[in-house]
Amino acid sequence: MYGGKSMETKKVNSGMEYWKKIIILLCSGWVTIWIYRSALAPVYPQINDSLGGGISDSALGSISSFYFLGYVIMQIPAGFLVDRIGKKQVLLPGFVLFGIAAFLISQASSIGMIYAGSFLAGIGCGSFYGAAYSLTSQNIPQAKRSFSTAIVNSGSAIGSGFGLILSSLLVVQMQMPWQTMMYISVALIVCMLIAFSLVIRGNKDDVAFIEKAKLEAKAKTAPEKVKEDVSFKRLFAPRMLFTYVLYFATCYAYYMTVTWLPNFLGTERGFKGVAIGFSASLVAFASIPGALLFSRLADKYMNKKIQFIVVLELLAAAMLLITVQATNQVFLLIALILYGFLGKLAVEPIIISWLGENAPKVGVGTTLGVFNFFGMMSSVIAPRLTGSISDMTGSKEMGFYISVILLVVGTVLFLLANLRKTKQA
């Protein structure tokens, strides 16, 4: 027994470090999730036609809303379960449900069946966030955490970009059935289930980490110990609360954009065929260098994370404003690229890193669950609200203006809460 264990340890140590494997694995997980998430938006007209036509924009937008409703509902329970039973034990059943849901959508014969499948897919994917960022908080060295989180998050951009392009190319341009993207998603989900099973360590590591954090908390003085414990008061302290508000605004702008941008470009700005998916994917691909650059700077200047967050959020709001006001396609594309470079996927690793530094160590999963619950509530609201606005006004421009206002308000509130904390300190 002992000899086998020694050989296993030696094999692990001689290969890639575990935390680096975690980065690659979680990045791939986001790629899979986002290929699914972005696959349906470009093919709403094809879905409408396959179901007999007559489906409104708000009803089509609700496909995304039902997914995010399931995703939001799962955030706090998943975070709680991650802290109690372990990350692997939460991830695997979640992705099994995700795969079943994607297959059910591919077999749907009514919009109601697509809603049901989307809701189940959201519940399945809801297992990922708390487990993923608990793994990064537990295993990645602090000095490399923002940059490593940016690499993990880049999977969202890669998946979103490829999902939009593949969907536009295979379904819109090559006229393959829209269900093709669901079959691709199912295949990728199966690959991820195998990878999770092989790479992620078992529950013993989770227990050891939690016990170590508890011992460190007990060793500290009473005032410091309070910071290590999960409590309602700590979860909803002003700085934490306005971080949730900021994330709500950030996610609202992003999910409104990724859901309706392909349709907006095609119906209101004259883009055609694969150009729709390619242009929409620029937001995702431009976010990768932005996320890596700004997270590296945030790791280098660790005491400047609040300033990075505020500046990036305000610049992203400005780029969205230019996007909706631009009548020239070149200016519009430049604004979209800059929104991707400066927006959610660029600022999110810094927010998560800042949150990890301020969250109680023995309740990181719970804190991340609450944080993501607030942020992802916007993803339930934004797609349907923008679709309803489009049905009433014939345009989705007001959806962009609402996003800009929310970003500015959320950023100002976050800044004020942190200024107040600094003065008190």
UniProtKB/TrEMBL annotation:
InterPro entries: MFS, MFS_dom, MFS_Efflux_Transporters, MFS_trans_sf, Sugar_transporter_CS
Domain of life: Bacteria
Domain Major facilitator superfamily (MFS) profile: 22-422
GO terms assigned for molecular function: transmembrane transporter activity
Membrane topology designation: Multi-pass membrane protein
Transmembrane segments: 21-39, 59-78, 90-108, 114-135, 147-170, 182-200, 241-261, 273-294, 306-324, 330-355, 362-386, 398-419
Gene3D superfamilies reported for this sequence: MFS general substrate transporter like domains
Main location: membrane
Subcellular location: Cell membrane
GO cellular component: plasma membrane
Sorted UniProt keywords: Cell membrane, Membrane, Transmembrane, Transmembrane helix, Transport
Keyword Cell membrane: yes
PROSITE patterns: MFS, SUGAR_TRANSPORT_2
Signal peptide range: none
Protein name listed in UniProt: Major facilitator family transporter
Source organism per UniProt: Enterococcus saccharolyticus subsp. saccharolyticus ATCC 43076
